[in-house]
Structure formats: C-alpha cells, structure tokens
Amino acid sequence: MTADAYCITIEGELDDVAAAAFPDLHVERQRGATTLRTGLLDQAGLNGVLDRLRMIGAVLVALQRERSVSAG
After folding, report:
1. Burial class (CB in 10 A: 0-12, 13-18, 19+), 27
2. Which of 58, 12, 13, 8 is nearest to 35 (CA)?
3. Strand, coil or helix: what is 24?
4. What is the pLDDT along the chain (72 residues), one digit of tens a residue?
5. Residues 69/4, Cβ–Cβ less than 8 Å
6. Cα angle at 33 between 48 and 18, to 5 degrees?
7. Residue 32: what are its φ and ψ, rounded to 5°?
8. How remote is the C-alpha of 55 from its chain's centroid?
9. How many other CB atoms are found less than 10 A from the CB of residue 66?
10. H or E element that contains 33
11. Residue 31 neighbours by CB under 8 Å, 6+ apart
12. pLDDT of residue 71
C-alpha cells in the first residue's frame, strides 16, 4: 500500500466555517485561492478529502502529490 501527501489548491478563499470541515489538513488562504496540505493519505483518504471539497462546491485548481511512502 502506498501513502502520499498532497497539496490541493481550490478557487477562492475558504472562510473559517468551510475551513472547519478540514480539521486534519493545513489550510492556507492567499490571493483568491486556498491551499490544503494533507498528511500521508492512501487513495481512500484522498477521495474522502475530494468528496468533502465537492460537497462544499469547491472548484479544484490543482492537485499535486508531494511525497510518497510505500508500506509493506
């Protein structure tokens, strides 16, 4: 199994209420965009984060894998 860390950028700056939906992520707001940085996630974890973004109507600008760790 592989776990990866991700940097996800969405359009717009999340307010405090919307950012509270991501307590497990580092949220950085700047210049009309929000960047969320994850810890190590497997694919199910990444899909969970993307589902939460979809539920709040976020527009995905970029998704970048930052590092990878293989277990096993």
Report:
1. middle
2. 8
3. coil
4. 689 999 999 999 999 999 999 999 999 999 999 999 999 999 999 999 999 999 999 999 999 999 776 655
5. yes
6. 50
7. 80, 15
8. 13
9. 11
10. strand 33-37
11. none
12. 58
What was the pLDDT predicted at 57?
A: 94
Q: Which long-range contacts (CB under 8 A, 24 or more apart) does 26-32 make?
A: none
CA-based nearest residue to 59, from 20, 18, 26: 18
What pLDDT, on the 0 to 100 scale, is given for residue 2? 81
pLDDT of residue 29: 96
Q: Rounded to two decimals, what is the model's pTM?
A: 0.87
Residue 57: CATH number of its domain: 3.30.70.1560
Residue range(s) defining the domain that contains residue 29: 2-70
Integer Cα distance of 48 and 42 in angstroms: 10
Q: How many domains does the chain have?
A: 1
